[in-house]
Design a protein that fits this description.
Structural class: alpha+beta
Largest sheet: 5 strands, mixed
Shape: globular
CATH topology: Ubiquitin-like (UB roll)
Helix content: 10-25%
Number of strands: 5
Order of helices and strands: EEHHEEE
Distance between the termini: 46 Å
């Protein structure tokens, strides 16, 4: 099963500088897919989930067009070839 992770610029330092990580792993859920990603790039884990294993408040994860927060969270099913986009919130700018 192939999964395509899109890694945002601020997190690429934890993924060997890659913008895209393709994993050939058996995964039925987003939780399993992320566990496979962390096996390959362990530095990403603490930036995406809390110590309790919950997706951080300021991080959104999309499977296709759907935000996993609006789906089944880490139990959201993943399919072969699906694209997973990690999107951290961005703050700053001029008031």
């Amino acid at each position: 099963m192939a999964l395509v992770f899109h890694i945002p610029s601020p997190l690429r330092v934890f993924a060997e500088g890659k913008a895209e990580v393709i994993l050939e792993v058996p995964a039925a859920t987003m939780g399993e897919a992320l566990a496979a990603l962390w096996t390959r790039h362990p530095g990403l884990r603490d930036r995406i989930v809390t110590e309790q294993g919950e997706v951080r408040q300021y991080v959104n994860i999309f499977v296709g067009d759907g935000n996993i927060r609006d789906l089944a969270g880490l139990a959201t099913p993943v399919l072969d070839g699906c694209e997973i986009m990690i999107v951290p919130s961005v703050a700053g700018g001029k008031n």
